[in-house]
Amino acid sequence: MAEPAIIGVQRAEARLSLPLAIAAFSFLVALALAPTMLRDPDTLWHVVTGNWILAHGSVPHSDFYSYTMTGKAWVAHEWLAEALLAGAYDLLGWHGLAMLGALSVAAAMGILARALLRSLDPVYAVIAVMSAWILLTYHMLARPHLLALPLLALWLSTLVTARDAGKVPALPWALLMLPWANMHGSFLFGLGFAGMLALEAVGTAEDAAARRRAFWGWGRFIALAALLPLIGPNGPEVYLLPLRLLGMRYALSILVEWNAPDFNLLAPLEFWLMLAILLGFVTRFRLPWPRLFMVLFLLHMALKHERHGELLGFGAALLVATPLGAYLREQRLASGLLLRESGTGLRLRRPVLALGSLAFVALVALASAQPLAPPPYRMPAAALQAVRDRHVTGNVLNADAFGGYLIWEGVPTFVDGRADMFGDAFIEREHKALVLASGDLPELLDEYGVTWTLLQSNARAVVLLDHLPGWQRLYSGDVAVVHVRTAALPPR
Q1: Most Cβ neighbours (<10 Å): which of 26, 101, 252, 344?
Q2: Distance (Å, rounded) from C-alpha 195 to C-alpha 176?
Q3: Does the pLDDT of residue 352 top 70, yes or no?
Q4: Do 465 and 488 touch, CB atoms closer than 8 A?
Q5: What's residue 348's pLDDT?
Q6: In what helix (H) or strand (E) does residue 397 lie, and over which residues does it extend?
């Protein structure tokens, strides 16, 4: 009589993949944070560019958004991600962008969880995934880097898994570079990460023959991975453009995401550091020296530029997982119930799984029913409408934060988020003029034939324009202020 009862219980149960559960939960949380995904002004011009690419079936190579740089060479190096963003927006509007971003986060977290569960018990794997999630939160924006996140996770997990097994990644995995290089410049980090693992393989080889095998094996893989990005429509520019951007010292100093984390505020990196320090003090766990140097390098990147937090979150978790898992089992701090040994996932009764699935669908539907749009401080619609109502025409001097919206509305910009195209000298001159760090503002207005300005309401230049001869304030709001050259203002 006992056997049928056991069979009945087994039939009433189902298994839920833990990586799938983590991905589903990540999707819901990311969807709940959808308004924050749309807070970046660059999202707007990325969508416009994507629509141009879809309409023309080609990639733009010169500027047609600004009047200050019209015709200048412009590398749309994120064209594939921009096409995806445009397709999502055309299909579902702002909710489409949020859905696409949430799917990217979910896929990346699921891939990370699956890789970590090869070495860590579920509880420790979940903690590692949460640490990566924390470092991602600041930079979770509907922009190309978020769409490339699953490729980052898959690349890092594949390489680390191969290295932990004493193998070289199979050559077909190098093909990940084809889409990645056309989505975001972080592919360069992927190549650098492969180089660090190759050095580890060569440096820790048992003998000369093993060193040669590691050198040639990893060398072939990295060489193929480095050549594949050149196949894209931008050719060598996929390498040159990110390097030029990294050399723009002034522009990077005023872009918030390129600044160091501000620990006066609640910085996500602070939680990660506290967790790492806790691990170091309460255990005797020690990383092998090569892995320790890699983690420290990733930490350096995250401390230098806040936007590199996700690289630390994903990279460090994968680098630490195998040695940490071995240590925990040695210390009997692991249950031994690794996912690969305990089946496909969590045991759940079928009614519970069904109710969970219904709840997931209901929450997605509820999130999709809520109004969603970029915040008003990125879309100064009332200010632009005031300009149009008074039939003001001509060139605008706009704040960089409003460049994406002007492109969205078809208004040629003075400057926008494509810092690499405008160049460091131009951005420095414009920025110093607007913060009154130089006396160039009147000269800039005349040099570029500016007839109206669209600046943030708290901009220092607003005060100067209020007192500048030949200029008058046309519109004032909480978000933006518009000044118009008196001679260019049509009579009512």
Answers
A1: 101
A2: 16
A3: no
A4: no
A5: 56
A6: strand 395-398
Q: What are phi and psi of 347, to 5 degrees?
A: -80, 125
d(CA 440, CA 434): 9
d(CA 79, CA 143): 11
How many angstroms separate the Cα of 82 from the Cα of each of 207, 342, 420, 457? Answer: 48, 41, 17, 30
Residue 486 in this model has a pLDDT that exceeds 70: yes
In angstroms, the Cα distances linking 103 to 137, 151, 276, 357 are 15, 13, 28, 17
pLDDT of residue 110: 96
State how far the alpha carbon of 66 is from the alpha carbons of 45, 301, 439, in Å. Answer: 12, 33, 24
Q: Which two tokens stand for residue 388?
A: 């149009």
Residue 97 sits at φ, ψ, to 5 deg, of: -65, -40
Q: What is the pLDDT of residues 425-436, one digit of tens each?
A: 999 999 999 999
The pLDDT > 90 percentage for the chain reads 74
- Tokens encoding 125: 């794997």
The answer to whether the pTM exceeds 0.70 is: yes
CB 259 within 8 A of CB 309: no
Amino acid code (one letter) for 130: M
Q: Which amino acid is at 36?
A: T
Strands 395-398 and 450-456, sheet pairing: parallel
- Classify residue 370 as left (phi > 0), alpha (psi -120 to 50) or beta: beta
Q: What is the pLDDT of residues 263-285, one digit of tens each?
A: 887 788 998 999 899 888 888 89
Is the alpha carbon torsion for 118, 123, 126, 132 positive or negative? Answer: negative
The Cα 202–Cα 228 span in angstroms is 24
Residue 448 contacts residue 485 (beta carbons within 8 Å): no
Q: Is 391:490 a contact under the CB 8 Å cutoff?
A: yes
What is the Cα gyration radius of the chain?
26
Indicate the DSSP class of residue 288: -
Altogether, the residues listed in the chain come to a count of 492
Q: Cα(217)–Cα(467) distance, rounded to whole angstroms?
A: 68
Average pLDDT, the chain: 89
- Would you tell me the crossing angle of helices 79-92 and 42-56 to the nearest 10 degrees? 90
